[in-house]
Design brief:
heterodimer, A: 750 residues, seven-stranded mixed sheet, 36% helix, globular, B: alpha/beta, Rossmann fold, nine-stranded mixed sheet, two-stranded antiparallel ribbon, 5 helices
């Protein structure tokens, strides 16, 4: 078996290369040849094909994503923006938080357990590579219809994967979402978020400066998992069929990842890391090209030195392997001994595989021959950029015209409340969240089913000066809203996450997003994408919260039918005194209940239309960002003044569901009175609304604060008793609410 | 002189920081102990925290029992050193034969994290003397392998000798006789599936501070010793 060296490539210019099998277009391949002045070697083709893939290069989305930068609001908090492994924001007192959400959708459909597990592993390594200690995870999940057969395969596997991997890492899982819709039956969405904490002056970046510095690969050894297309390349080049059928889904080892976390933190503390990058998609290819491109510009790597778990791997496969739990660091020669000693303490294998050079070239050798010799920036940064055509979907006008006005209103609102409360999307998610450890490390202030997860930060790292601050995180997204109007849908996703953070008393600070769409080659999908990005960028500017990073997932479709466009938005907020956080729901008897915000008749894309009529049409609720901002200001200020005892945001299912969930939080009933049309008041999904509970003696002060900020505040009633009573409309014992709410998922999934 | 309680970290241990914090909150000194050391650092008691030591590979606790530190800990425990193992720590104590029986896969086959009602049955141990016999408490549980099993003679002996320390009220995992925690014959070694270290502060963790009792018990014992 001969090696396809640079020398050989120059001598055999006409040799056909399997670029199409690797997903490369003819013009992309031609461009590689133009860059190199010859045909690429098999290894070079491996690098360009993965680095220029949609997943790594954002070639279809780039032209739109630029708006997150050009429209970014001015923010003093942003320390590291888009383009790094994760964004970093200043949260005060010398602390910084880094957070990001990323998809692992397709692997989770093929192999739910490992797909979801390695999704968690990947995002945790992104956070580690910023120099941070990962402190919590969350998951935004979408599955097919709850009663569809394949959901019974996918959901338990995904939950078990997240559970087994995340729990074993020792990271509390503090929230997220579980949503069912038949549009996701062939394309479940697994979006994993991780947040980390670091001192502001200890940010690490993916860069390889300083000629002579060593390149160290550490963590798990490299195996044949997740290679995908590389096998095509290896077998096509070398006529070796044995490599053709390799698992395309990676297999995770959370134990190794836990060791890597502790090992990295000790390496950072010892200051023996110049630059660092995790190995995720595109493995060694991505890490070497990106580190080199952002550093002095050159790197020499001897691929024979990469520790292998399968000695038969060819260089092309080593370059593309997505074996998990690996990191690459750039280390000064004088620090190598200390670096290795720390790795040894944690039983983490580490190997010097190369060094930084000033040649401007990424050079790799195999068996003494040069197999890669490329300018690294051409692979990492200069990938193709497409301005994909887009147009409004053919049926969009008709869809928007088919409003819920024609749907029969229910006669029995009690029955409607129970139907919605027990429907899979609104039912208790405890069957899922009880499989996640929410307590480990003892910094969890709020976790599911609270509106946002919250963590204290003073105790996260030993020796750091104490602070009263905490951070809050929420993720939200509504595919039905985005299907009806992707511009508004993306804004509503942001608005809900922003509101969920604010109702806990935290000030929203920054945004991450995971944009899940169908094929970008479908102009109708591309329109949805363009509109969603435009909407989100505009809303971020209005609300003053910059996008710090995120992820695009295209090709979520079965045949020609795409999923609903599903932008999932994560918002991170800060609370100055974490002891003043607002609990979710009715926390005591005898408190005044108030509704903030205006309720309009808005049922397009609502849970009621979905559950009662299987209807999706019309327009989603209007996104009123000025009202969201004013309400958030009131909530944060009221929390700081100690005026609020509890709160809950209004979203899917409207006031009725918010009241029921608030009763369920502590098993405390309530009596409320409505002033308008009961059905609209209870089930409309108008945005910019929240419930709060206030001590009677504090109510006037709170109402005055609302008036100062022009936030509508309506006294609804009082907490107490054993039933939820809506005067003259319905009465349901809390025990019945509980039974309805908690029975659905266990009945479906065992 | 303050009481010194060792907290053992194996590769994959997760709740060591939590345990150390709970020990400090109770007024004792937490002393980190490293799995690879042959050194108990002269501590007065040892806490074996939860987690997934060695990834729970092979069988929970099966590899940890061979750690160098365990070679020091096992004889010390047999000579009366107070030892509390929670969750993975309980599993390790069983694998090391300091406690009888074994922890197997939950009957539901799912990992379960929830705030669990329990009854403290035995208050004669150095870890539970702050409780009233029969006192009901709430502590978090979080495990996939917490179903306590042993042969009928062992169970009968545990019950007859009052060696069941804590019992579940509402069995979450299928444990025999709702057993959540036991002690050895001498009483100095206690294993629990619940996590007292996650129930010591109002701000974080479970909505209970019932876990503090385990830490004040050992402090009282050591200070009065």
């Amino acid at each position: 078996m001969s090696t396809d060296s640079v020398k050989r490539a120059a001598e055999t210019p006409a040799e056909p290369m399997p670029f199409a099998e690797l997903g490369m277009k003819q013009e992309e391949y031609d461009r590689v040849k133009e860059i190199l002045g010859r045909r690429p070697t098999g290894s070079e083709l491996a690098i360009y094909s993965v680095m220029w893939s949609e997943h790594c290069s954002y070639k279809s989305s780039k032209v739109h994503l630029r708006q997150f930068a050009t429209k970014a609001p001015k923010s003093d908090a942003l320390l590291v923006g888009m383009g790094e492994n994760a964004g970093v924001v200043d949260i005060g007192d010398g602390w910084a938080a880094t957070f990001k959400i990323e998809s692992h959708n397709h692997p989770s459909y093929v192999e739910p357990h490992q797909g979801a597990a390695t999704g968690v592993g990947g995002i945790v390594r992104d956070i580690m590579s910023m120099g941070a200690r990962p402190i919590a995870v969350m998951d935004a999940l979408r599955f097919g219809g709850a009663d569809q057969n394949d959901t019974r395969r996918v959901l338990p596997g995904v939950v078990e994967g997240i559970s087994s991997y995340g729990n074993c890492l020792g990271l509390p899982n503090i929230g997220g979402e579980v949503v069912f819709d038949p549009c996701y039956i062939g394309n479940p969405l697994v979006n994993a978020l991780c947040v980390g904490l670091l001192r502001k002056d200890q940010i690490k970046l993916a860069t390889a400066p300083g000629p002579g510095n060593k390149v160290v690969l550490f963590g798990a050894s490299t195996g044949p998992d997740g290679i995908g297309g590389a096998s095509v390349l290896a077998s096509a080049t070398f006529e070796d069929e044995s490599h053709a059928k390799r698992p395309a889904v990676q297999v995770g080892d959370p134990f190794m990842e836990k060791l890597l976390i502790e090992c990295c933190l000790e390496l950072y503390a010892a200051d023996v890391v110049v630059g660092i990058q995790d190995l995720g998609a595109a493995g060694v290819s991505c890490a070497t090209t990106e580190l080199a491109a952002k550093g002095t510009g050159g790197m020499h790597v001897d691929l024979n030195l990469v520790p292998l778990r399968d000695p038969s791997l060819r260089p092309e496969e080593i370059l593309m392997s997505e074996s998990q739990e690996r990191m690459m660091a750039v280390v000064r020669p004088s620090d190598i001994a200390a670096f290795m000693a720390i790795c040894e303490k944690w039983d983490v294998p580490a190997t010097v595989i190369g060094e930084v050079t000033d040649t401007g070239r990424l050079v790799m050798t195999w068996d003494g021959e040069t197999i890669v010799d490329i300018p690294p920036g051409t692979a990492a940064d200069d990938g193709p950029v497409y301005e994909r055509p887009f147009h409004e979907p053919a049926g969009q006008v008709a869809l928007n015209a088919d409003t819920p006005d024609r749907l029969d209103r229910p006669a029995d609102l009690r029955l409607t409340l129970l139907e919605l409360l027990g429907s899979p999307n609104l039912a208790s998610k405890e069957w899922v969240t009880s499989q996640y450890d929410r307590y480990v490390r003892s910094n969890t202030v709020l976790a599911q089913p609270a509106d946002a997860g919250m963590l204290r930060i003073s105790e996260v790292m030993a020796g750091a000066e104490p602070t009263t601050r905490g951070i809050a995180l929420a993720t939200d997204g509504n595919g039905r809203y985005a299907r009806l109007d992707p511009y508004a849908g993306a804004q509503l996703a942001l608005a809900e996450a922003y509101r969920n953070v604010a109702v806990t008393g935290a000030r929203p600070l920054a945004v991450t997003n995971c944009l899940n769409f169908g094929s970008p080659e479908d102009p109708e999908v591309m329109w949805q994408f363009a509109e969603a990005v435009r909407g989100l960028a505009d809303a971020c500017r209005t609300l003053g919260v910059p996008v710090t990073g995120g992820n695009v997932s295209f090709y979520n479709q079965t045949g020609s039918t795409p999923i609903h466009p599903t932008p999932v938005v994560g918002v991170l907020g800060v609370i100055d005194d974490v002891a003043k956080r607002i609990a979710t729901g009715f926390v005591a008897e005898g408190l005044r209940i108030a509704l903030l915000g205006e309720t309009k008749e808005e049922f397009g894309g609502s849970e009621w239309a979905h559950v009662a009529h299987g209807h999706l049409g019309g327009l989603p609720p209007a996104a009123d960002l000025a009202a969201e901002q004013a309400m958030a200001t009131v909530l944060v200020e009221a929390a700081a003044q100690g005026l609020l005892e509890g709160s809950h945001d209004l979203s899917d299912g409207g006031l009725a569901i918010a009241l029921a969930e608030s009763c369920l939080a502590r098993g405390i009933g309530a009596t409320v009175a409505l002033s308008g049309d009961a059905f609209t008041d209870l089930f409309s999904e108008s945005s910019a609304r929240a419930l709060v509970v206030v001590r009677p003696e504090a109510f006037d002060r709170f109402a005055a604060l609302c008036a100062d900020h022009e936030v509508p505040c309506y006294g609804l009633g009082t907490t107490g008793g054993t039933s939820l009573v809506v005067e003259g409309v319905l009465e349901v014992p809390v025990a019945e609410l509980r039974e309805t709410h908690s029975g659905t998922l266990p009945a479906l999934f065992g | 002189m303050s009481a010194r309680v060792g907290v053992v970290t194996f590769p994959g241990t997760l709740d060591d920081q939590d345990a150390a914090r709970a020990i400090r909150l109770s007024g004792a000194e937490a002393v980190p102990l490293w799995h690879a050391d042959h050194d108990l650092k002269g501590v007065d008691a040892v806490f074996l925290p939860g987690g997934f030591s060695y990834g729970d590979y092979l069988r929970c606790g099966a590899i940890s029992r061979f750690a160098p530190l365990m070679r020091e800990l096992v004889p010390a425990a047999r000579e009366g050193l107070p030892v509390l193992g929670t969750c993975n720590g309980f599993q390790i104590l069983c694998e090391a034969h300091l406690l009888p029986g074994a922890l197997t896969r939950n009957a539901s086959l799912h990992y379960v994290c929830r705030d669990q009602r329990l009854r403290v049955e035995a208050t004669g141990t150095p870890w539970t003397s702050s409780f009233e016999a029969g006192q009901e408490v709430v502590l978090p549980i979080k495990h996939g392998e917490g179903r306590y099993v042993a042969d009928p003679e062992t169970i009968a002996a545990l019950e007859a000798d009052g060696r069941v320390v804590v019992r579940y009220l509402g069995n979450p995992n299928g444990s025999v006789n709702d057993i959540a925690g036991i002690r050895n014959e001498a009483g100095n070694v206690v294993g629990l599936m619940p996590h007292p270290e996650h129930a010591v502060e109002n701000l974080v963790g479970a909505p209970s501070t019932d876990g503090l009792g385990f830490f004040t018990s050992i402090l009282k014992k050591l200070v009065n010793a």
